[in-house]
Amino acid sequence: MNQVHTKHSELRSILITGATGGIGIELARRYARPGRTLILWGRNAERLQRLATLCCARGAAVVTRQIDLVDGRAALAALREDDTKHPLDLVVLGAGLSDIQPAGQLTEDPEKVLDLCLVNFTIPATLATAAAERMIARGGGKIALIGSVAGFYELPFAASYSSSKAGLAQFAEAANLGWSRHNVRITLIVPGFVDTPMSQRLEGERPFLVSAGSAARRIMRAIKMGKKEYIFPWQFRVLRVVERLVPHFLRARILLSLKAGQKPVKNS
Ligand SMILES: NC(=O)c1ccc[n+]([C@@H]2O[C@H](COP(=O)([O-])OP(=O)(O)OC[C@H]3O[C@@H](n4cnc5c(N)ncnc54)[C@H](OP(=O)(O)O)[C@@H]3O)[C@@H](O)[C@H]2O)c1
């Protein structure tokens, strides 16, 4: 197995998408330090500005970019522009959308499916590829993709979310095979429930919930160690083993019996 030798202390330029989200904010705060440039992407201008001020106070140089990732061509151009100005050592692709089919509706909303699949799969795969192209030419780098344990399950009430994350996992696996030989390491982060606005919208239980701060610490450690895949918390690693023993017909029944709902999105 090839090792990627970029040490954490050598991460001079880090780009984070979804920096304005629950996990992204905690990652940015923790990565902020003197001698490091953080390139923070998000949609919400006010949150971006607040985060930039906080990270600057911690000694980091900060560049912000207000961007809607639904526009894939613009996102690709933006990544190349940022990488030209600040050759990226680490790219964390954390922006994500979630959705649950409303009760009483027989399908998800097709417009939402379109945006979700772009933001959760098409754009991270595109940006990871563009970053890897540059990193390979420079001799190496690190890329972290934020998937979800939902990607392990074919969730009937969240077909687009679960399949976007399953697709991302497959992309990470395939890309790692090709790119690790060139000193570019992908770490696929696979969280369970993290206490952020995304999961706070869910109705019902959030088993094995972890705080956003704890998630960020774990994610940073996994990236530092160059792990290929990191599932947390540990209970989901156990479930991953157990679920393989469940016969297909029973699995379908269990998945169909799950109840899920979400509160309306608050505009901030
Ligand atoms: N929270 C959980 O329980 C959980 C579990 C498993 C996996 N994850 C994954 O972890 C990642 C981070 O989620 P989170 O919990 O931190 O959620 P969050 O608080 O809702 O943050 C989502 C982030 O994605 C950004 N984003 C969404 N749509 C975008 C778009 N069209 N263009 C640009 N940025 C966009 C948001 O930007 P603005 O806020 O600026 O709009 C925000 O920064 C996601 O990929 C999510 O799927 C979360």
TrEMBL record:
Q: What class of enzyme is it?
A: oxidoreductase
Q: What is its EC number?
A: 1.1.1.-
What SUPFAM superfamilies does this protein's entry cite?
NAD(P)-binding Rossmann-fold domains (SSF51735)
| The Ketoreductase domain, residue ranges | 12-192
The UniProt record lists the keyword Oxidoreductase:
yes
The record, for InterPro entries, names: KR_dom, NAD(P)-bd_dom_sf, SDR_fam
Q: Which Pfam families match?
A: adh_short
Domain of life, source organism = Bacteria
Name the keywords, alphabetized. Oxidoreductase
GO CC terms on record? membrane
Q: Name one GO molecular function term.
A: oxidoreductase activity
**Xref: Gene3D superfamilies:** NAD(P)-binding Rossmann-like Domain
Family, as annotated: Belongs to the short-chain dehydrogenases/reductases (SDR) family.
Q: Could you tell me what this protein is called?
A: Putative oxidoreductase
Organism of origin:
Acetobacter senegalensis
Lineage, top ranks: Bacteria, Pseudomonadati, Pseudomonadota, Alphaproteobacteria, Acetobacterales
